[in-house]
Specification:
- The protein has nine helices and 16 strands.
- The protein is an alpha+beta fold.
- The protein has three domains: about 90 residues, Rossmann fold, CATH 3.40.50; about 110 residues, ATP-grasp fold, B domain (D-amino Acid Aminotransferase, Chain A, domain 1); about 60 residues, ATP-grasp fold, A domain (Dna Ligase, domain 1), CATH 3.30.1490.
- A five-stranded antiparallel β-sheet has the order 14-13-12-15-16, sandwiched between helices. The chain has a four-stranded parallel β-sheet with strand order 2-1-6-7, with helices on both faces. The chain has a four-stranded antiparallel β-sheet with strand order 8-11-9-10, sandwiched between helices.
- β4 and β5 form a beta hairpin.
- The radius of gyration is 20 Å and the shape is globular.
Length: about 300
């Protein structure tokens, strides 16, 4: 197979592993810098150009779109879809997952366990928002934050009110969520590939940090998840429409709750913690499922 991967940094562990896994299986994988692509949006003749050359019609495309370039990255991916290239994750599904508010609404619609989450526009409604979320301690998140950046734990109602009012005064959109104290500063990252959880790890935050992101100094170890947690991860992926994703969950007193569904999960932490060839399983999934024009949306939406 001839595979393209949209990625800005070919040296990242995840990107190197995917390229290695593809080549080990006899496929060709070319890493294309998303921001160096430009498009000819012509009627019935969609094309993508890269560094002066017109790109061929690949068998599949792996979108590894950074959060900071989501808008342009999705435009390029839609162009691939209109050319009939099979996307591992479709543009519409990635767009859903990148919008924290929309993804929470979709998960809630499908009855998937979530922490109590509130959202409001008017700073004058801060008191009501705090009450709806159950009062401090509360987690306050920027809608555009990633990798634990823009996430604040407010220990008291007074501090929560101050943080919310500061963010809203700066015209920044936020979510306010209950703090799952019983999780003990740990979460579960379940890697879903093709409607199956292929690997899972437990992440723990650095000393004194309630956030468990590995980028912020957290640690990881393999974990055996329960059937309910496995089903929750698979359902969350299906709700988003993602074939490959990382589902972040907390163990609460009322069962697993989903914090986020990541459409471009890092592979280093989970591969090193579990010893599982996650990159290989992703490539195997592509080889088994890639078909020309096999895209639900074909670039629409």
């Amino acid at each position: 197979m001839n595979i393209a991967m949209m990625a800005r940094n070919p040296e990242l562990y995840s990107h190197r592993r995917l390229k290695e896994a593809a080549e080990e299986r006899g496929h060709e994988l070319r890493i294309i810098n998303t921001l160096r692509c430009y498009m000819n949006i012509a009627s019935r003749r969609p094309a993508i150009y890269y560094n002066g050359e017109k790109l061929p019609v690949y068998d599949a495309v792996i979108p590894r779109i950074g959060a900071s370039v989501t808008f342009y990255g999705l435009a390029v991916l839609r162009q691939f879809e209109m050319m009939g290239v099979y996307p591992v994750n479709e543009s519409v599904a990635i767009g859903r997952s990148r919008d924290k508010l929309r993804s929470m609404q979709l998960l809630a619609r499908d009855g998937i366990g979530l922490p109590v989450t509130t959202f409001a526009y008017d700073p004058k409604q801060t008191e009501e928002v705090l009450e709806l979320a159950g009062g401090a301690p509360l987690v306050i998140k920027l809608l555009e934050g990633t990798q634990g950046i823009g996430v604040v734990l407010a220990d008291t109602d007074r501090s929560a009110k101050s943080v919310i009012e500061a963010f809203r005064g700066a015209k920044v959109n936020i979510l306010v969520q209950e703090f799952i104290k019983e999780a003990g500063g740990t979460d579960i990252r379940a890697l879903v590939v093709g409607s199956k959880v292929i690997a899972a790890m437990q992440r723990s935050g650095a000393e004194g940090d309630f956030r468990s992101n590995l980028h912020l100094g957290g640690s990881a170890k393999p974990i055996r998840i329960s059937p309910e947690e496995r089903a929750t991860a698979v359902r969350a992926a299906k709700t988003m429409g993602l074939n490959v994703c990382g589902v972040d969950m907390l163990r609460s007193n009322h069962g697993p709750v989903v914090m986020e569904v990541n459409s471009s999960p890092g592979l280093e932490g989970v591969e090193k913690a579990t010893g599982i060839d996650v990159a290989g399983k992703i490539i195997d999934f592509i080889a088994a499922n890639a078909r020309a024009g096999k895209t639900k949306t074909k670039g629409k939406g």
